[in-house]
């Protein structure tokens, strides 16, 4: 209990590795680690730093070869005379989602690596790859995991927890949207994400019922789970399109039906690197 004092609290508030953009660490966890003699193993820290460098190199390669984030930021489809096809817009949303995951992975792991070198072990924020998810619930547990823990402790449980999951998720995602910024497109992202949760919660409830025991033992169940995983990625893409690509005004009208990934990259290269 000696570590629970005002001096330690000030050190916790202004702890440099986590002050700017690091993972969220509770005061109790910080104080207990500060008073403990246990430190992260040097081998683990070196390996973690090597993984950080590898992720940074992949992000740098992605930034210079895949222009989808620039397409989204500049809204290239509005300036391109022929417009973009639905596939063009969809693949843009998919790669922007991957870019965002990798970008935040590098940012959060940099500050966590800094804390590890200093001797503190904060929680990991990105627990799994964005494409390695089988449901939206698991995705949000692994994306910004420390913030997810904070939401569970201070919003989800006080609102009723699992007993009112179908209702309190609307409050939580609305709060998360407002926490990001006060924009209608982010509110649309939050509510579209909640809509994607509804069939998932219904399917999980149905599978847990006794009459679905035969389905769970069926060899086809794994294929149904894989199809649900694909639907989950599509739902995340749709929400990401609204929140971070096209905005609340939605997709541009009159999209042509032709086009593809190669054509999209050529268009982006033409816009981002105009020839004299």
UniProtKB/TrEMBL annotation:
Subcellular location(s) of the protein: Membrane
Keyword Ligase among UniProt keywords: no
Keyword rRNA-binding: no
GO biological process, one term: triglyceride biosynthetic process
Ranges annotated as spanning the membrane: 12-32, 44-63, 83-102, 224-245
Gene Ontology MF: a single term: acyltransferase activity
Domain of life (superkingdom): Eukaryota
Topology of the protein relative to the lipid bilayer: Multi-pass membrane protein
UniProt keyword terms in alphabetical order: Acyltransferase, Membrane, Transferase, Transmembrane, Transmembrane helix
A GO CC annotation given for this chain: endoplasmic reticulum
InterPro entries hit by this protein: MB_O-acyltransferase (IPR051085), MBOAT_fam (IPR004299)
Chief location of this protein within or outside the cell: membrane
One Pfam family, short name: MBOAT
Protein name (record): Membrane-bound o-acyltransferase-like isoform x2
Native species: Tetraselmis sp. GSL018
